[in-house]
Amino acid sequence: MASHTVTTVWKENMQFETDNPSGHKVLIDTSEENGGNNSGLGPKAMMLSSLAGCSGLDVVSLLKKMRTSVNDFKMEVTGELTEEHPKYYDKVTVDYHFYGDNLDEDKINKAVKLSIDKYCGVMEMFRKFAEVKTTTHFHNN
């Protein structure tokens, strides 16, 4: 069974530096109103970025295998936090946006569906604690 280990080190004030198993590093911090310097990514927002990154990697890989190209691709992920502590995302929306000429909507929809339903482990983790909704948008030039 595979496992991952990250090391997170306190740098100063409310700032931490964390790595991932490949050694890349990122800063974590909080807003000034919460005592930080706003010099890094917030932990909860990083979760949303992880969701987009995981699904995005799937989609791009699948589109390559399907020999389908797009000019541009972005995802907007919105998480709604609960009112009570500990606050967590109970509703998450993922909007996939594809841009290009003569987009093959069937293949793109298939790639997104495979990511959502089969390949994206982060999506599956989010489903354990949040209602996840997804929408695909096509922007033909």
Q: What would your notes on this structure say?
A:
The protein is α+β, with helices and mostly antiparallel strands and 141 residues long. The chain has 2 domains: 1-41; 43-140, 2-Layer Sandwich (GMP Synthetase, Chain A, domain 3), CATH 3.30.300.20. It is built from 3 helices and 6 strands, in the order E-E-E-H-E-E-H-H-E. Strand 2 (15-19) and strand 3 (25-28) form a beta hairpin. It is globular, with a radius of gyration of 17 Å.
Write the layout of secondary structure elements.
Elements: E1 8-12, E2 15-19, E3 25-28, H1 43-65, E4 72-81, E5 89-100, H2 105-119, H3 121-127, E6 131-140
Parallel strand pairs: 5-6
Antiparallel strand pairs: 1-2, 2-3, 4-5
CATH architecture of the largest domain: 2-Layer Sandwich
Q: Please identify which CATH superfamily of the largest domain we are dealing with.
A: K homology (KH) domain
**Poorly predicted regions:** none
Please compute the radius of gyration using only Cα atoms: 17 Å
Helix content: 25-40%
Strand order of the largest sheet: 1-2-3
Main β-sheet description:
3 strands, antiparallel
Strand content: 25-35%
CATH class of the largest domain reads Alpha Beta
Annotation keywords:
three-stranded antiparallel sheet; alpha+beta; GMP Synthetase, Chain A, domain 3; 141 residues; three-stranded mixed sheet; single chain; 6 strands; globular; 2 domains
In short:
The N and C termini lie far apart (45 Å). The chain is 32% helix and 33% strand.
